[in-house]
Amino acid sequence: MKQDKNMLDEISCVAYGLYEKRGCAPGNDFADWIEAENIVMKKYSKGSPINVKAVKTSQSMRAKAKTKPVHDSV
Fold it and tell me: Buried (b) or exposed (e) across 29-64, using 16+ Cβ within 10 A?
């Protein structure tokens, strides 16, 4: 369970980094989340099986990403 949270935290951080890289322009949070998810999942899948529970959880996070920003501004 902790690994799932760590993976979601990492996806969130990567997505926020992508948002910052685009100059913090709004409107692409879903695309940023999907790209971040692909980046992190690729990292986790190298040499080990993908955690199916984390994939299902991240799918529900994608639905939430449509309506809420990934991070608040710091």
Answer: bbebbbebbebbbeebeeeeeebeebeeebeebeee
Per-residue tokens: 6: 């760590």
CA separation, residue 16 to residues 37, 60, 74 (Å)? 12, 18, 11
Distance CA 34, CA 73 (A): 20
Q: Which amino acid is at 33?
A: W
For residue range 20-61, list pLDDT tens digits in order.
999 999 999 999 999 999 999 898 887 554 444 444 444 445
d(CA 40, CA 55): 11
Can you point out the beta strands (E) in the chain?
none
Position 70 pLDDT exceeds 70: no
